Amino acid sequence: SDGSIRLHQMTSEYPLMQWNDSTNGRPVIALQWALTRPAVFFVLDASSNIYIWDLLENDLLPVAKQTFPSEDVVTMTLLGEPDKPNGLLGMVLAKECGGIDIEYVKKKWAVP
């Protein structure tokens, strides 16, 4: 609820990494690891901002942020084919009005 993100290892109750205020204090609505690239994850906050984290590029801050100011995005999920090397990765965004958008992620964050 405070925008912090914690990365845990299954064998420990303490986080390996913790990013406080990662969404400028906005609650995290959804977080999902990329299906095609293990070091990348996506975070949706309560203000319809999506943050892209690539831990191989920068493990302190997100590498990109996409804002959807006129649309209330209520959840997201990723789709892709992890068994295929094409690196195609899509993001499904569900909006408060009932609409659904599919956005494709840049290859640099999708290719294995």
From TrEMBL:
<dbReference type="GO" id="GO:0005929">
    <property type="term" value="C:cilium"/>
</dbReference>
<dbReference type="GO" id="GO:0042073">
    <property type="term" value="P:intraciliary transport"/>
</dbReference>
<dbReference type="GO" id="GO:0045504">
    <property type="term" value="F:dynein heavy chain binding"/>
</dbReference>
<dbReference type="InterPro" id="IPR036322">
    <property type="entry name" value="WD40_repeat_dom_sf"/>
</dbReference>
<dbReference type="InterPro" id="IPR042505">
    <property type="entry name" value="DYNC2I1"/>
</dbReference>
<dbReference type="GO" id="GO:0005868">
    <property type="term" value="C:cytoplasmic dynein complex"/>
</dbReference>
<protein>
    <submittedName>
        <fullName>WDR60 protein</fullName>
    </submittedName>
</protein>
<dbReference type="GO" id="GO:0045503">
    <property type="term" value="F:dynein light chain binding"/>
</dbReference>
